[in-house]
Design brief:
The complex is a heterodimer. Chain A is mainly α. Chain A is 77% helix and 0% strand. The two termini of chain A are 23 Å apart. Classes of the chains: A mainly alpha, B alpha/beta. At the A-B interface, helix 10 and helix 11 of A face strand 5 and helix 3 of B.
């Protein structure tokens, strides 16, 4: 029966899939073009009031061409035009030194460090809670309702309280002042005020991991669990050899959500943390001074960051599951 | 109960408590299985044949009567890893290769690396899957996967092999082939085999004894000793003797149904 190998079938499938990926570019581009059109139209519509006011004050008439040109080039537009945001992003990334307080890379790095630290804390906590829920009946009954309740509290309300509390007990910087000075000479900028932000990021990111991992660790069916019993396998062996590997697809799916949630948490925390830094800080100071272009640039920067982080987990997922033989 | 008896059930009862009231899965089951026997359990769904096999494996616990496996309680026997169990689905881990899957019980039972390799190689040969150790389950057909799962159950040298409709999901041609191989394997290893099926030809072809069961309550209605020789080519199924035994099994099944028809 050695002719039953069917590997070539999958090779042809893979070819089909890459063909499908090429085809999917057209719909994506269509959506992008549609968004840009709406965006430019919205810029004209929302910014026209300022243009008309200025013209009235100067006592001149504006033609439609002048209106469009002006609404797409204001200093403090209500809605900045896409190219203004792109120029701002270019100016604050490529044309600024990374150490500058005006560099989007600098602020992005600060948000990234809080996001990643919070993500790891949240993921670790989430996995531990899930293991507890699956193996301990008391935790199964008690933890989940609290986990759900924790997510119903608006993060925007908790974040400032947490920042204040952690400030008063002095738990804000990643390293103590002495340790930091011994290691780096001074406290690196991104470590300042890192902890409250990471905690808030973790607060948002543990939940999807708990839910996903509980489902994943319970994925083995009764037959697979019975098989383990016929081997007289203990809880440890069936966790390590059956439940944990079975949960991998679930884990990666929840990690993607957790990463996005951690970024949201970090940005929200930055709205109330001090010093005002990071992408959230950029949005906040932009709104103080009416710098809408700066806000939008920070917003797009956050979106790019999220896409990269989630994309990285996607790559990790594909590599891991492929090595485990679970993805074809 | 002779000296050679490995599995012995006396007045065995098993009642499941369900929301619709108690269900008598097994009632007053008496059966001795001797060393080296190939015993098939046949009957309609709900007759308790799978439940009886699971009770031997200590996956279910009887509510009355006694059951001994290798002279121990089923639970003790399970802890001593007295049997290998083959389920209806192969249930191979998709993240392990075929060899990795067969190693699974060996790893859990603490065999050394060298022993693991040795056992894997010998059982792969036994189920005719030599050279497929490095493949992943999805690269094999359903029949090959089921053979791999039999290899996994054989890997740790248990004397008893319990099989719960192992070929039920396979087509008839593959099934014939696997039946032939299973007989060869049984002849080579001299294991005691308990085999659940709902196919009369399969039961008659494979078994030294056929246990006919009937439902509500699940009970044994007939035990048929096969008169077929140990050497059984596939065309033995056309012999008069084979047809005679199959007829008896069918009669037994019909009698079991008689009280409700």
């Amino acid at each position: 029966m050695s002719h039953e190998i069917c590997a070539p079938r999958y090779a042809s499938l893979r070819f089909l899939r890459s063909g499908a990926r090429m085809k999917s570019i057209i719909p994506i581009l269509t959506v992008v073009v549609a968004i840009l059109l709406v965006w430019y139209a919205a810029a004209v519509w929302k910014n026209s009031k300022w243009t008309y006011d200025q013209a009235a004050r100067a006592g001149v008439e504006v033609s439609f061409g002048e209106l469009v040109a002006d609404t797409w080039a204001q200093d403090r537009p209500v809605v900045p035009a896409p190219h203004q945001v792109i120029v701002e992003m270019w100016q604050t990334t490529v044309n600024k030194k990374i150490s500058s307080k005006r560099s989007l890379v600098f602020h992005g790095w600060i948000t990234l460090s809080a996001t990643v630290l919070g993500f790891f804390i949240g993921t670790g906590l989430g996995i531990l809670l899930a293991v507890g829920i699956v193996f301990n009946r008391a935790m199964d009954m008690s933890v989940m309702p609290w986990a759900i309740a924790s997510q119903t509290i608006p993060i925007i309300a908790i974040a400032p309280m947490l920042v204040v509390v952690m400030n008063t007990i002095g738990a804000t910087d990643f390293l103590g002042q002495d340790t930091a000075e011994a290691l780096f000479g001074s406290q690196p900028a991104f470590m300042k005020g890192l902890l409250p932000k990471a905690v808030i990021a973790a607060y948002l990111s543990f939940f999807p991991v708990v839910v996903g991992m509980v489902k994943g660790l319970r994925a083995p069916d009764s037959m697979q669990l019975d098989l383990m019993r016929t081997y007289n396998a203990g809880g440890f062996a069936s966790f390590w050899k059956l439940r944990l590997p079975s949960s991998m697809p679930y884990l990666f799916t929840s990690l993607k959500i957790a990463m996005a949630a951690a970024l949201v948490g970090a940005i929200v925390a930055e709205l109330s943390a001090s010093p005002i830094r990071g992408l959230g800080g950029r949005m906040l100071s932009g709104s103080y001074y009416g710098q809408t272009i700066q806000i939008w640039a920070a917003l797009i920067g956050a979106a790019v960051l999220a896409a990269v982080l989630v994309g990285l987990i996607g790559v990790l997922q594909r590599v891991t599951l492929k090595r485990m033989g679970m993805a074809r | 109960m002779s000296e050679e008896t490995v599995i012995s059930a006396k007045n065995l009862d098993l009642t499941f408590q369900t929301n619709d009231g108690p269900v008598h899965a097994l009632k007053d089951v008496n059966l001795d299985i001797d060393k080296g026997d190939f015993v098939s359990f046949i009957g309609p769904s709900g007759c308790g044949k799978t439940t009886f096999l699971r009770t031997i494996a200590a996956l279910e616990h009887p509510t009355g009567g006694t059951l001994s496996v290798n002279g121990m309680t089923p639970d003790e026997a399970r802890r001593k890893r007295a049997y290998g169990y083959v389920f209806q689905a192969a249930g191979l881990y998709p993240w392990r290769t075929i060899a990795g899957n067969i190693k699974l019980p060996l790893e859990i039972m603490g065999y050394s690396r060298a022993e693991q390799e040795e056992h894997v190689n010998s059982v792969l040969e036994l189920v005719d899957l030599k050279g497929f150790g490095k493949k992943f389950p999805w690269q094999l057909s359903g029949g090959m996967q089921q053979r791999a799962s039999i290899a996994r159950a054989l890997a740790f040298d248990a004397d008893i092999l319990l099989m719960d409709e192992p070929f039920g999901a396979l087509d008839e041609i593959v099934r014939d082939h696997l039946n032939e191989q299973l007989l060869a394997l049984w002849a080579r290893t001299e294991k005691t085999i308990g085999f659940v099926t709902h196919s009369i030809p399969e039961a008659v072809y494979l078994s030294t004894r056929i246990v006919v069961m009937s439902p509500r309550p699940g009970r044994i209605t007939d035990v048929i000793e096969s008169t077929l020789p140990k050497e059984r080519p596939l065309d033995i199924r056309d012999s008069a003797e084979f047809i005679e035994i199959a007829h008896r099994v069918r009669e037994g099944l019909r009698a079991g149904h008689g009280d409700e028809a």
